[in-house]
Here is the input.
Amino acid sequence: MFKPLLMFLLLSFFPLYSQYKVIIDTDPGIDDAVAILLAFQSPEIEVIGLTSTFGNHDIDVTTKNCQILLELAEKKIPIAKGFKGPLVIPKRPNPDFVHGRDGLGNLFLEPNQKEGNYEDADSFIIRSILENPKEITFIGLGPLTNLASALLKEPKIASLVKEVIVFAGAIYYPGNCNPLAEANVWSDPHAADIVFSSGLPLTTICLNASKKPQLTKQILNEIERANPKIGVFLNQINQFYIDFYLSQNPSLEGANIHDSLTIAYLLNKDLFSWVEGPICVVKEGIAEGATLMDTSSSNEFSPWNERPKVRACIDCKEKEVVALMVERLSSTS
Ligand code: BDR
Ligand code: CA
Here is the structure.
């Protein structure tokens, strides 16, 4: 009687502190870096580890970039090293033209700690979820290879993870790698298909939702002025990223923030709208990487029938999302 009352009172007075224990699986990546710092700047979130994956660069570089981010944010949490390529298909070329030849806007930074004794990412994911049943939120910002491998090795984690939020897919919306495929799914369609069919409590944020919110040079200057400790870095790495977006579409004001939307969704689901349905991933051919959702429960022989429903975010309140990001990234407390 006394204990629940005490818990209730504590939660009422300190509602913001470490509500979520989070693993971030990531391929930094400029928008990954923004998302990770956004999580670190959010008191509701306790990041218990970063798991690196190939994607925006080779695994050695994305793992090094994780270390750079931990040192910048002065966080002493583990990095677990992930897969160097997809489960079945050959690895795609690195998108240097989006994220730079170092994955972080061509600044060629070096961490103080050069090499670590890294646990494998899939083992770290399995161990963390089994040791903290129903407590871990998994955030996926890259190809879904590490999570798919963890599910293959220990299917029990599907029912023991609290929530999974990934940036992956495009629901009947133009892709950014081919006319239908989003980059994280296209980079490892087999892994994405395993994750989408696993029955995890899964939300995927899709390109449909990330098209609108933009990070502009003006906003980055504002963040830099308010919080130079991370703002200078954010401003520098994003120059390259924004220039890429503007070169693609001069009517834009800045760059799409993709990965940060997973953190914004975790913090405030009211900022998003979604559709729900089973998703099959196209694993080969001209539409490789397309995420096809059945929204109609078509017929009894449909391959979608066997699959669990996935929540796919297709829109967001972009002004509120950007305001949330600016508020958190500018905070020095
Ligand atoms: C996704 O692909 C990567 O380039 C970004 O980091 C993001 O995770 C956008 O499609
Ligand atoms: Ca990413």
Notes: The longest helix spans residues 228-248. The two ends are 35 Å apart (CA to CA). The chain has a mean pLDDT of 94. Residues 205 and 261 are 7 Å apart (CA to CA).
